[in-house]
């Protein structure tokens, strides 16, 4: 163990923040840390939109499913997969960009995830807390319109940041044997291991909620995955110039 690994292992989602602002110099430091993340073929396909508190932030909170902390967090960032600047780079050299490939969608989206995770770790090293907001994809077309996103740009997720005003426990992750395989994919023991893990998660929820919630990991996942998962995403992405081939 070292301080970096200890910091990573101590990650919690924070949904309550103090009113202390995050100064712009810190914001720019965090963005630079995000830029230092790995990027596929140097594509650098992430654009971040910092949204100030006010009407636009309130609208995003409503679009994300009425998540109050989106409106209340001192800092809110929207991470956008952005292939528009690459179109510009091609035009600068009188080259016609071949767009719409699924691979481009994947690399741009992964760039955003790597960029954002660097920011999260950097923020936590400064004593800040964070929570990702995938709920922006509930009404992704409205979010894109609100932020005036052009074709070849789409909002992947948001991120709330600020000084924590709560101290939740670390949520237990799956046992290593389920996620780390040797030489081949062998899941022959996974069900037994997950059943034991289910009890760990059930106890975590029981403790966190004072007995108001008792749910295992497999119950949570099975309840989620029997429902449609934002079926509007594919036509929206295709309308923005992604996943056409």
TrEMBL record:
Domain of life: Bacteria
One Pfam family linked to the record: Nitroreductase
InterPro entries linked to this entry: Flavin_OxRdtase_Frp, Nitroreductase, Nitroreductase-like
Sequence ranges assigned to domain Nitroreductase in this UniProt record: 10-163
Alphabetical UniProt keywords: Flavoprotein, FMN, NADP, Oxidoreductase
Molecular function, one GO term: oxidoreductase activity
Family, similarity comment: Belongs to the flavin oxidoreductase frp family.
NCBIfam families: PRK10765.1 (NF008033)
Protein name, as recorded: Nitroreductase
